[in-house]
Write a structure and sequence with these properties.
- The protein is about 50% helix and about 20% strand.
- By secondary structure, the protein is an alpha+beta fold.
- Among the domains are: about 90 residues, Calcium-transporting ATPase, cytoplasmic transduction domain A (Distorted Sandwich), CATH 2.70.150.10; about 150 residues, 3-Layer(aba) Sandwich (Rossmann fold); about 140 residues, Calcium-transporting ATPase, cytoplasmic domain N (3-Layer(aba) Sandwich), CATH 3.40.1110.10.
- The strands form 5 sheets. Strands 14-26-25-24-15-22-23 form a 7-stranded mixed beta sheet, with helices on both faces.
- The protein starts with a strand and ends in an 11-residue tail after the last helix.
Length: about 750
């Protein structure tokens, strides 16, 4: 049998230690070459020459359920994350028994532990609660010991409960098992909530669409739609498929995809994305992707894959937990026997109010449970990745998130990153203009006429500079007044010429006019200044007489300066712009963006070397580019960030970059670094808090001041607190998001 890759959804996992047991056990199956299970996402990845049914059967023998996922690997939404905690516990037999045990242990806690009453029926009820809540835990501990040869957390609790029964502490033994089972269920419930934060995006896509065929509209399941089909989207409806607008105009709220809070105008030829919300207009859309391959499906798939990738600190903690638990058992055994043997201390409890060293060793097993430590990292990482995805940012796993938190320098590409990548008209000046000179973009009648004539000729051209002039004429409301041009001829490398109402209109470069057409010295100087500032001057003549000049430039993004300023406040020490443009052009753009360090006239292959030099100086460096022509530099950086994946249609960016901004709004960059730093702080706080609580209670237990149920309550509380602290990251929003 050939080697294949499988992805399974594992059901019934409550903690990272349970996941580790499954992972270690499956890895030992014949034919399995590698496997990895993420407790928070519940996804098991297996590579090897093995049948999937063998994996499913084996996982079931461990006490869990496994479902083979389809090729897209998107974990199906389960009811776990949408119900109350009690309903969540009632869904499975193990947690249902824990609930029953919790009810049965109440009389023992109140009458025995608090009031000191002793009666046979209290012990009998407590023993029943112990069996109900503890039997699944003991069975899991035995399976781990036999199948994966590991001493699990469940084994610690089972040993502690059996020891408590031996010394006659039935109520305490039952309480330990009940509290532990409920604590594990809380971890599973909060993990399901974290998973649902990203999987709920799947519910944003309608299950059906109005397909238009032969003039008739038919309600059709989206799974049956094919590329090239035409669908109708009415006002207020969600767009069911990725596509291109064929007819109609509207505003689209595409916040689920790009995180943009402001609706975007969509006219014929514009792209729309499944899950976005149509505004006031009816539009017809040509389907461009199948349902399984639309933008939101790719987002969910990539985020889930990212959630499966463990952060370096998580891998370290997992390895630590692997030897920590057996070590705790050995230490507990030594604590139970050494003081009585060597120092004459009591082994059994001398009195109801004084604990012997056997009891203290049992309490040590309980308090040393590493649940809180193990869960502290993955729940924070998953929450951060989900929050980022909701803001239109895809981060490729915990390693990339951890690396982002260490970045101190950011390198930017210019064209398409700091600038829009599309030329726009920035100045119009007619020779007959009488407006003040400082107002270079004049709006007098003479300048309007000049723009009309230029638009008339440029409408017949496909050149990007021509589009800039036509777009400006449309925005200023003069396009409809532009006369029709005839005999339009391109002058390759020089410009374009055409006849407008019997007059010959020529639009050309400054160099071409220097060679062929006389023009005023003032305009010559203006053209030189524009060229030095990174603009493209276009001169206009009418019937051979100079008429004026238009200036076109790749405009800086309006939010660039704000984004750079916020990056510095977020802890970025240095920002640099790398570009192949002329130095004068680069410096002008950098000055507008608030960047002091400019590396101009740099070929693409040398950008990667400059990124390496920055890494030598600053350590961790991020490179921000458009994801296509900056690939070498993106790969050389500690973290490569591609922007505008949705707007530019560059699906390659989603697949290859460490971080992808679905929109081209640079203000999401500071959010990315703020989120990464917040995640790093959260993990550090969780780990430190978990270790501190363990250390304090170890001292308390060794001194004989803590009962076993107090120890398990402290462990459960710590696990809950670190989980809730990690889930806080789900609430992070970038500035401008509602």
């Amino acid at each position: 049998m050939q080697t294949r890759n499988y992805i399974f959804a594992i059901h019934g996992i409550d903690c990272a230690h349970c996941a580790n047991t499954i992972e270690v056990s499956v890895a030992r199956l014949d034919g399995v070459e590698a496997c990895e299970l993420n407790a928070t996402t519940g996804r098991l990845r297996v590579r090897g020459a093995v049948e999937p049914d063998a994996i499913i059967t084996y996982v079931r023998s461990l006490g869990y359920e496994a479902t083979l996922l389809e090729n897209d690997g998107v974990t199906p939404t389960t009811p776990d994350a949408s119900v109350s905690f009690v309903e969540f516990m009632w869904q499975r037999l193990e947690t249902r028994l824990a609930l029953i045990g919790a009810i049965m242990i109440v009389p023992g806690v109140v009458l025995h532990e608090l009031l000191g009453w002793r009666a046979f029926w209290i012990d009998a009820l407590a023993f029943a609660a112990l069996i109900a809540a503890g039997l699944p835990i003991a069975r899991s501990a035995w399976r781990s010991l036999v199948r994966s040869r590991t001493i699990s957390i469940n084994a610690l609790m089972t040993i502690a409960a059996i020891g408590a029964v031996i010394i006659g502490a039935h109520v305490e033994a039952a309480l330990v098992m009940v509290l532990f089972a409920i604590g594990e269920a809380i971890e599973g419930f909060t993990a399901a909530r974290a998973r649902d934060a990203i999987r709920s995006l799947m519910t944003l896509v309608p299950e059906t669409a109005l397909r238009l065929r032969d003039g008739y509209e038919t309600r059709t399941p989206v799974a049956e739609l094919k590329v090239g089909d035409v669908i109708v989207v009415r006002p207020g409806e969600r767009v069911p498929m990725d596509g291109v607008v064929r007819s109609g105009a509207t505003h689209i709220n595409q916040a689920p995809i790009t995180g943009e809070s402001v609706p975007v105008v969509k006219t014929p030829g514009a792209e729309v994305y499944a899950g976005s919300i149509n505004g006031e207009g009816v539009i017809e859309v040509i389907v461009t992707h199948l349902a399984s391959d639309n933008t939101i499906s790719r987002m969910i798939r990539l985020v889930q894959e990212a959630q499966d990738r463990r952060a370096p600190v998580q891998r370290l903690i997992d390895r630590f937990a692997g030897w920590y638990t057996p070590a705790v058992v050995a230490i507990a055994a030594l604590i139970a026997v050494i003081p009585p043997l060597l120092f004459g201390q009591p082994f059994w409890n001398p009195s109801p109010d004084e604990f012997g060293w056997f009891y203290r060793s049992l309490a040590l097993l309980v308090v040393a449970c590493p649940c809180a430590l193990v869960i502290s990292t993955p729940v924070s990482v998953v929450s951060a990745l989900s929050a980022a995805a909701r803001a239109g940012v895809l981060i490729k796993g915990g390693a990339a998130l951890e690396a982002l938190g260490k970045v101190r320098a950011v390198a930017f590409d210019k064209t398409g990153t700091l600038t829009t990548g599309r030329p726009v008209l920035v100045a119009v000046r007619s020779v007959e203009c009488r407006e003040p000179e400082q107002n270079e973009d004049a709006r007098c009648d003479a300048c309007t006429t000049l723009l009309e004539l230029a638009c008339a000729v440029e409408q017949r051209s496909e050149h990007p500079l021509a589009h800039a002039i036509v777009d400006a004429a449309r925005v200023r409301g003069v396009m409809q007044n532009a006369p029709r041009a005839t005999s339009v001829t391109a002058l390759p490398g020089h410009g374009i010429v055409g006849d407008v109402n019997g007059r010959t209109v020529l639009i050309g470069s400054h160099r071409y006019f220097d060679e062929t057409a006389p023009h005023p010295l003032a305009f010559c100087d203006r053209a030189e200044r524009d060229a030095g500032a990174g603009r493209t001057p276009l001169m206009v003549s009418i019937d051979g007489t100079f008429a004026g000049m238009l200036s076109v430039a790749d405009a800086i993004r309006p939010e660039a300066r704000e984004a750079i300023a916020r990056l510095r406040r977020a802890g970025i020490q240095h920002a640099v712009m790398l570009t192949g443009d002329r130095r004068e052009t680069a410096q002008a753009i950098a000055a507008d963006a608030g960047i002091d360090d400019v590396r101009a006239e740099v070929l693409p292959e040398y950008k990667a070397q400059m990124v390496e030099n920055l890494r030598a100086t600053y350590g961790a460096v991020a490179m921000v580019g458009d994801g296509i022509n900056d690939t070498p530099a993106l790969a050389s950086a500690t973290v490569g960030i591609a922007i505008g994946a949705a707007h530019g249609g560059t699906n390659q960016a989603m697949e290859t970059a460490d971080v992808t901004l679905m929109s081209d709004d640079l203000r999401r960059l500071p959010f990315v670094f703020e989120l990464a730093r917040a995640t790093r702080r959260t993990i550090m706080v969780n780990v430190a808090f978990s270790i501190a609580v363990k250390a304090v209670f170890l001292v308390i237990v060794a001194a004989g001041w803590s009962t076993m149920w107090m120890a398990v309550f402290a462990d459960m509380g710590t696990s809950l607190l670190v989980t809730l602290n990690g889930l806080r990251l789900l609430g992070m929003r970038h500035q401008g998001e509602a």
